[in-house]
Amino acid sequence: MSFMWPAAWLLILPLAAFLYWHPFRSRWVTGLRLALYLALVLALSGIVVEWPDRTGTLIVAVDRSRSMPDDAKEEAESFLRRLEASRPRDSRLGVVAFGAEPVIDKLPESPGFDGLESRIANPDGSDVSGALALALRQIPADSPGRILLISDGRWTGMDPARAFAAAAARGVPVDLRRLLRASAHDLAIAGIDAPMSAAAGEFYTLNCRIVSPEPQQVTCRIRRGDGGWMVREVKLHRGVNFVSWRDRSDQPGVADYTVEVIGSDPASDERPGNNRARRLVSIAGRKPVLLLSESPSGNLARVLAEAKIPVVVRRPSPAELTARKLAGYSGVILENVPASRLGPDGMSLLAGMVRSGALGLMMTGGRSSFAVGGYYRSPLEEILPVSMEQRQELRKNLLALVVALDRSGSMSAPIGNLTKMDMANLATLEVYRLMMPRDEFGVIAVDSAAHTVIPLTPREDIVGGETRIRSIESMGGGIFTYTALHQATNELMRSNAATRHLILFADAADAEEPGAYRELLERTSRAGITVSVVGLGTGQDSDAGFLKDVARRGNGMIYFSDRADELPRIFAQDTFLMARNTFVDTPVEADYTAALRSVSQADFGRSAGFGGYNLCYGREGAEILLVTRDEFKAPIAAVGQAGLGRVSAFTAEADGEYTGRFAADPMAGTLLSALANWMLTPESGGDDYLITQQLTDGVHRIELHLNPDRERDPFPAPPVVNSVVTRGFGAPETRRDVFTWVSPDRLEVNLPLEGDSVQLCTVVWDGRRPESLAPAAALYSPEFRPDGDAVSGADIAELADSTGGRELLLPDGLWDELPSRLRRFNLTPWIALAAVLLLLLEVAERRLGLLSRLFRRRAATVSAVAVEGKAALSREKRRKRAAGTEKAKNAEFPPDEPPVPPTAEPEEPGDSLGDALRRARRRR
């Protein structure tokens, strides 16, 4: 017991003096006043009591990385269920799951445990440090806590020693439950030694280190890029073995090597994930330009070749936009390519590399480019020097557009923090925002019936449109397609707009009730109504053929995407293509501007003629080189900066039906090659510095060596490394790291390599253009490293022991080992309540005398009982004396003589007093 303000006890002296000089006549009031004073002093002193408490919080951190055994998830869940079953009532159990990043699987406040349900985004890592830090944050600072780490003891990323030290400083023990994958028979590639870069035509060696658990005959294979395998049979001894290859490349770019080793008994290999490794070698020289075109033999490729620009022509495909392939080019040209041929991840990677300065970008126009090609709201639209925004003056005729949305049960599937239905709603909002004030717009949500969310109404008259669209929720069975078509086309039939269009959104694997759709679409086609279909899924899904037929009969477009986050871009693309055709297909004359001198010094004349162009507008900060003479005054050619990279746009068709008089213009090739040359990244190199790269222990080390004889540093501030990191899944990531000084002439940056990621880095400092570095890739997932290259379980066990934890086999008794802490309980509120009650009791006693009367009555009752007891005892004594006298008389006289009656004795005073008391009690 302790007091927060013990000085309050000094108040006892004046209170006692006051009570002494002002006594009360009743001892009861005096006692109550004394108790009241004591309670007030206790309350003012802040009385606190403490007692030991073991109830608290247990957080279990579960390793979900690839290095864990195959049954690790089931064993961890069994462990957690036993902990939940034995959990004390007032204690809490939380769960943190982790791979390369930690996530909360179960909050400590959540009741029960239903299993490990969180999704591990990147299992190619074991961030033990981050998991412990997150677990520690779930334990209240004023509560006992304990952490249980279920892991194989291997970790990646930051050294967890600091996290264990933080737990020890908090007094939180960390226990360890190890789940190990067998590794006694692990055949592994430990590393590939090769240069980061080599000159074109130069021979170099790739030296592969192979760890074998026993002597055996193995097959080693190596290939470059997508070429064939080179096979070699090798006899290995136990331990580390070396196998080497020599190679050369005559073309600048990136050589992507894959090495694989196959043991004599592949089924016995306990960790096959480290039997295949990867290494990238950058081939120095002037890198070519990648031209993506549906016409590989077209005029644009010839023009670039004549301008001495090395060019590689490929048909557009997401496979062409990978980090490994793009690292071998200095720029990318998109010739009338639709966005759907590139893929969302490819566009994100291309935009990220342009911003980092690793690539340049050029886009040419046509009916499959810019807005009508699906680039509105795409990652590439943000970096182009022209804007695809639409303005009121573009279209003179009214538009009526209805969106019919599938809201069946399958639309409730989650996508990150949203659902498929949420993404469909966002896509509908994109269309809603593209409408002009007098355009008519409507929304229908369909499951087994059609539900009108917004009837076909002029855009300016719709009230709360965005809120109504966002409120659409998934419910019901599959979409009844015919019902959706019938309801939507009935709405459009009543409109007088010049253009009437329907966007039907459906699940490609769950589009039910075809009905008489053929007859319906025949009538709508005759009425001039067009129907486009957006299918969530792929063209191979069960109902994809039916949806394709709907779009064909409706004279519209068909789109498939298995990524719901692509829906807003697709909906906007269809709106531009079918309803707002932003491709101007009439001949137009364009004038050159003075800004043309920034890309070329040639004499282009005054103007050029074109057969059509994509209507765009100049973006702020861009330089417009060609401007149309029509009412739009739109750019035909423009250049601009995107982050650290350069971008050029040619909104006319470079080679095709709408090229017009420009195809015969003698300066056409000069203009196109000038736009291409302007956006290319420069060659690297410098006289006063040298940049080197190394790959060691899963770390990409970049070093900047300066000339020791320099008079000053070549930069005002330490340079920066901009990196674009791609993995085998998801969109690329970007990061920015500043060089740090490690010696007077050397700066360094260390970047971790994760899993199958590829890093594309550029070095940037003030006054220079970005310098691209050789791409770097990890051998394989760090989770598959051989035991000799990874942190062992013993190290983690020692760190756990330093916190007061221990290694466990079973969870029994773990709750009883929560640290005991003194729990403080403040009694001040209760003492204050007691003081109030004492005050009320004192007032009642002073005014009513309740206590005095109560105890006086009880005393009288006790006294009366005592008197009555004495009287009864006296009567018993008299009765016994009378009985003895009678017996004596009977002995003196003969039996035949009658007894003499006893003489009545007067009653004693005690008898009368007892009777009076009894009567008094009866009256009460």
TrEMBL record:
<dbReference type="InterPro" id="IPR002035">
    <property type="entry name" value="VWF_A"/>
</dbReference>
<feature type="transmembrane region" description="Helical">
    <location>
        <begin position="827"/>
        <end position="844"/>
    </location>
</feature>
<feature type="region of interest" description="Disordered">
    <location>
        <begin position="875"/>
        <end position="924"/>
    </location>
</feature>
<dbReference type="Pfam" id="PF13519">
    <property type="entry name" value="VWA_2"/>
</dbReference>
<protein>
    <submittedName>
        <fullName>VWA domain-containing protein</fullName>
    </submittedName>
</protein>
<keyword id="KW-0812">Transmembrane</keyword>
<keyword id="KW-1133">Transmembrane helix</keyword>
<feature type="transmembrane region" description="Helical">
    <location>
        <begin position="6"/>
        <end position="22"/>
    </location>
</feature>
<dbReference type="InterPro" id="IPR036465">
    <property type="entry name" value="vWFA_dom_sf"/>
</dbReference>
<feature type="domain" description="VWFA">
    <location>
        <begin position="400"/>
        <end position="575"/>
    </location>
</feature>
<feature type="transmembrane region" description="Helical">
    <location>
        <begin position="34"/>
        <end position="51"/>
    </location>
</feature>
<keyword id="KW-0472">Membrane</keyword>
<dbReference type="InterPro" id="IPR029062">
    <property type="entry name" value="Class_I_gatase-like"/>
</dbReference>
